[in-house]
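Handoff note, outgoing to incoming analyst
You'll be picking up this chain. Sequence as last confirmed:
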Amino acid sequence: MEDYFDEVLGPSVRAAIVTPLFREDPDLALRVLMTGMPDAAYRNLRRLGRIFPAYYRFRHKIKAQRLQQDRADVADALDRISRELQPSGYLVGEAFSVADLTAAAMLGALLQPAELQYPLAVALPDSLRQYRDDLARHPAAQWTLEIYRRHRGRSAEVRRDKTARPANPI
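Most recent structure output, in case you need it:
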């Protein structure tokens, strides 16, 4: 089950997010993909301009004409989560497992649970927000948000003071 979420759900979620972003606003796509990274990383990658979207689509085998299929694969994965859920509220047995972790992690980028370590710092376009909001009504999406609440807790991310100087490594 973990392999299915990693190999089918993950790439489908990625494509469902970046396909419309690259089409509508490549700069916004880059900002979304650079979430959690320093501004310098965004500036450096932005220099690649038109090359980066083509490379990213090639690297991750994303095809714009497959958007509907990728979204259907995400919906199928949500349905599978609903079918596989045990009375315990987990996908396998009585406790949190790698299957739960993988399914929730792959959906986290799209659903943006409050406990996500690196929330988006930019607003998504209406079309992508609508897609996310439609999926959020699915029982498996609600399960994902609950898994984050139960098992992720608050982020341990350390925010750096931009005025602080690095320690002398002597």
